[in-house]
Amino acid sequence: MSAIYFRDLLIALRAGGGALTGLLFFLAVIAVMPFALGPDMALLGRLGPAILWIGALLAGLLGLDRIFAGDREDGSLDAIVGGSDFLSLVLTALAKGLAHWTASLLPIVIAAPVFGVLVNTDWTASLAVALTLLVGTPALSLVGVAGAAVAVALPRGGVLVSVLILPFVIPTLIFGVSAAYGAGTDAFWPPFLLLCASTLFLGVVGPVAAALALREGD
Amino acid sequence: MVELVADGLAGARGGQTLFEGLSFTLRPGEAMEVVGPNGVGKTTLLRIAAGLLAPFEGRIGVENGLRLGDISHFVSSLNGMKSTLTVAENLRFWKRFQAGATERIGEGASVEEALEAVGLEATAPLPFGVLSTGQKRRVALSRLLLEYRPLWILDEPVLGLDAAAEQSFSGLIARHMAHGGLALAAVHGSLGISGARTLRLGALS
């Protein structure tokens, strides 16, 4: 299924593909926070990891509805669904989720420690945020394919996908932020391991649900 | 060699039965043109034959029980290509994707050979989006050659093609049939294939 992964990545990186929109949105959310919260450096520093996580989560929701919509509009979805048995359809959904993550969320993971400076987050906390984002955000993309598959037939499915997906990634947000706050102490590991577990769990459930939705849809 | 058998097939769309009691056998080397007025269920029949829709009643399948999606190519009225990728990138993707099918029946042509077969080898480095309507259609049809599958299911394949391209596509189908292939095509005119059978869908009273 690497064919799907590399094609989707190539499309995202081409003009108008939207790979950088997520990153720009993330930057926008982080950059306006200090204006809203005021010049209290200590407060900003305390809220920093949570702001970074919320920014990444919202930015990650942006491109989700396009995962299958483009393929449906140009007719490739028929050839993809028709030419796959259930297992290869699951793998296709997995590949599409991973391509979305690589194009939209990996740049955010890499940029997070740098943008942490904007919200007065020290290096330990910033690196912990990047690490928890690296482990946690794949869950967003992988459960996102299920939402994208359910909403693929709807012309304006974008908001619906976000609303469908958000409840499923709330545990990811909770464990991610609490692990980031526990950076450098013993309080890091329990939420971090739960974060890994929730990513693995959603990474299986999401593609299977997406394949079911694609197969039964239409 | 596969044989496509439909038995008592009925198709429905949006809760409305479009056709029923359809039985036919398509043998190796045969082509069938599905004709009929708009909205009579031609595309629905093709989607059922491609395994994308479940029959409302009856059954359709191949003798040896292979999955329809594995032994068929379905070219719908849409082209299935990305406009921001080049023609060659699009076809390379389909070549790799189709080669990953569960049941492979035979090898197909290379991307260059497939483009040459539709007379568009010069367009390989161009973005798909800049091609003309007819050229886009020809690129979409060249996907049929990238992986050998015996059953070609075509929805208005020659829509937008000029006379020469139409004739050359008839040649491709004829060659496919000569190698034991099957073709099921919804058309408004004719594909210009000698010996093609016609399935006329009429409005249900």
TrEMBL record, chain A:
Domain of life: Bacteria
Bilayer topology annotation: Multi-pass membrane protein
Keyword entries, A-Z: Cell inner membrane, Cell membrane, Cytochrome c-type biogenesis, Membrane, Transmembrane, Transmembrane helix, Transport
NCBIfam families registered for this protein in UniProt: ccmB
Entry annotated with the keyword Transport: yes
Name of the featured protein: Heme exporter protein B
Presence of the UniProt keyword Metal-binding in the record: no
Residue stretches spanning the membrane: 12-37, 43-64, 101-120, 127-153, 159-180, 192-214
Pfam family, one: CcmB
Annotated compartments: Cell inner membrane
Family: Belongs to the CcmB/CycW/HelB family.
Source organism of the structure: Mesorhizobium liriopis
